Amino acid sequence: MREARPTRFLALLAAAAVTVSAQTAYQREISQWRAQREAKLKAEDGWLTVVGLHWLHEGVNTVGSDPKADAPLPASLPARVGTITLTKGKVHFKPATGVQLKDTGIRLPEMDLKTDITPEYDRLALGRVKFFVIQREDRFAVRVKDNDSEARKKFAGLRWYAVDPSWKIKATFIPSPHPVTFDTEVGVKETDESPGYVTFTRGGQEYKMEPVTEDDHLWFVFRDQTSGKTTYAASRFLYTPMPKDGFVEIDFNKAENPPCVFTDYATCPLPPPQNRLELAVPAGERMYRRLQ
User: Fold this and answer.
1) What is the rounded CA–CA span in Å between residue 96 and residue 252?
2) What CA–CA distance (Å, rounded) separates 108 from 93?
3) What angle do CA 38, 48, 90 make, to 5 degrees?
4) Alpha carbon 286 to chain centroid distance?
């Protein structure tokens, strides 16, 4: 009996060491993820570079730094860069005389433009500025990015809740393919495909959330009881791996702010009713404070 006590103590000590090691590895994983998240925001062409969103009307739309242009560009560019003609859902760009734009390194002639709903959409570049056409339902707009934007220059870094491993949750996946239509912050609707639902339990209460598919991940647009207090009022985003063996790993420590927090020119979706949680989720990214 006397010999068993040291053995039991050593076993408990070893188990504690394994637990501490796992927690340290998880802390390191989240720290690396957060660093990557911040680097992506600060990168060229990131959301901090978005400086304009201009809705097109049917017919000829002028593009350039002229403030009276239909799609105004930064003052560093010529007053007249070209025209974008919208004709029954087709978009055509014609550069102004003497203006040479590029798309992935190739000088552009007059051309039809593929919008952002296609994987290889056309991005027009002039100096440090890029612009392209986005499509939302039957509406079209010019989105403008400037790598010398004030938001990028004044980026103050992100703020986070302390890492809490208890917010890494193994949720049950319920297959039920169906379309999901989101309202957005700019008044248009956005429809995506959902593979089903997830359910999880917190504090003895069951919660249900509905993701949509984004590339090879699930994408949750959600709101919780921290929204409008310590996190962005409209929503947060959360990306997870696809379901495996009937489960989805939801890690709220990786919840992030939508692009609308960083620019006024995004078209962020709003959470569907089933993703408005009657639960506070003090995990992940907190509200970002823009520097004026």
Assistant:
1) 49
2) 10
3) 125
4) 15
Neighbours of 279 (CB within 10 A): 13
Count of positions (residues) in the chain: 292
User: Where are the alpha helices (H) located in the chain, listed in sequence order?
Assistant: 4-42, 150-153
Residue from 47, 40, 37 nearest 238 by CA: 37
pLDDT tens over the chain, length 292 residues: 445 556 665 555 554 445 555 568 999 999 999 999 999 999 999 999 999 999 999 999 999 999 999 999 999 999 999 999 999 999 999 999 988 888 766 677 889 999 999 989 999 999 999 999 999 989 999 999 999 999 999 998 999 999 999 999 999 999 999 999 999 988 888 999 999 999 999 999 999 999 999 999 999 999 999 999 999 999 999 999 999 999 999 999 999 999 999 999 999 999 999 999 999 999 999 999 876 6
Q: Calculate ∠ Cα 29-30-36, nearest 5°.
A: 95
Q: How distant, in Å, are the alpha carbons of 16, 104, 199, 217 from that of 176?
A: 41, 40, 13, 16
- Give the angle 229-235-241 at the CA atoms, nearest 5°: 125
